Amino acid sequence: MKHNRREFISTVAAAGAAVIASPLDYLASGSKPVTLKTIRISKVSTNFEREPLIRPFGFKGGYMREIWQSASYIESDSGKHSIGICTQSVLWSDAQIFSTHSESGGNALMYAMTEKAMQIINGQSFVTPVELIDSLYPEVYEYGKKITSNPNLRKTFALNALVGVDNAAWLLYAKENGLTTFDDIIPSAYKPALSHKHDKIAGIPLMAYAIPIEEIKAAADQGYFFMKIKIGQPGTQEEMLEKDKARLTSIHNAIGNVKTAYTRNGKLPYYFDANGRYEKKETLLKLLDHARKIGAFDQIAIIEEPFAEEVEIDVNDIPVRLAADESAHTVEDALKRIQMGYKAVALKAIAKTLSMTMKIAQASYEHNIPCFCADLTVNPVLVEWNKNVAARLASFPGIGNLGLVESNGHQNYKNWNTMKGYYPRKDAPWVNIKQGIYELNNEFYKTGGGIFDPIPHYEEMFASH
After folding, report:
1. How many domains does the chain have?
2. Which domain holds residue 171?
3. 391 and 255, same structural domain?
4. Helices 5-16/354-366 angle, 10° precision
5. Which residues have CB under 8 Å from 429's CB, separation 6+?
6. pLDDT 10s digits, 239-271
7. 339, 267, 344, 244: which is closest to 304 by C-alpha?
């Protein structure tokens, strides 16, 4: 959907202001008005754990070897408390910070921003988490610029640092207001975009640079039908293009003829993520020409973030669906990408905060732009947060009646099973993927997939507090 500039600016302004207007602008369970409490935060704390990866995880021309998991504890005047979990991804959120610091150094900077956020909110009051994050984000972002000595720090770096804070705020908000389901906590302003209830979600595995073609073929044999494949490999633009063409050829030779019941044409859709590595439109068009040549073009469902955010290339004339991910930091940024011709948005409630994600989802919905949920190689608990969003989005074009959620932690964490053991509902039927599908049931919707349950492992982190 195209708009003239005046209409577009008006839309951006309206979307940026789309927070709950009053404590009564909310419908619990879609029916009864609820008067929301004002919650005062009286105590805060943070902690983190370092989780090693099975092997170096490559994208954006770099490789991660471990991922920090931070936890944010907040307690209100009433004595109720909550703990929000965050998976940090410095490489995803700001590749420059990753490349100019040690891996631990970059993680420490992001964690320092989480700690700063907690100190800011200590003693503050809020009615809704959206309101809290709206007031908190600018200050944390400016603090991040200062401690990284980078005036061009990417907004996602600050948003990633706020995920645990935001999740803790949503959980405390639910406790204080007697809300027990994910549907209950969705503000009325964002319900239109999050109104579906799929009984199936397709699990999207991630195939990074180092994943052998044999593993991609094995994933297809196991029932995975929507796979995210990293392109934009290391090297010059010419070297990158040749590597990507060869990778596409190998993939198409391996799985191009595999059939699935979940797409209209019966073929596997290709989902490529370039993480901004393509510098020019012409280079991407050469890759698409190659795809036509080998018969793979019609199976390309999405190419995500082909160009660097700062380049701002109009993509309305590119003949495949391009998706915005990290460039859609905020709702204003997402709307700008839509105006530029991006025809899908990868939502990341587990990386940009649930508060910001609901705004982006609603703005996309109002512009008829489909969304799906991408991963950040998050821990098992955050996978369930992501599923809650994915389960409520409209089906993606060309795909059957189901949601889409990327989940690659099981492929990358050395201690994935240990981490899954922290989750009280680890044996619930919706937790494990079956033939490429997460199967949801009434209990999933009744409990929010278990995200409202206390998690002993993280409670013990703050037991002495």
Report:
1. 2
2. 36-185
3. yes
4. 150
5. 439, 441, 443
6. 999 999 999 999 999 999 999 999 988 999 999
7. 344
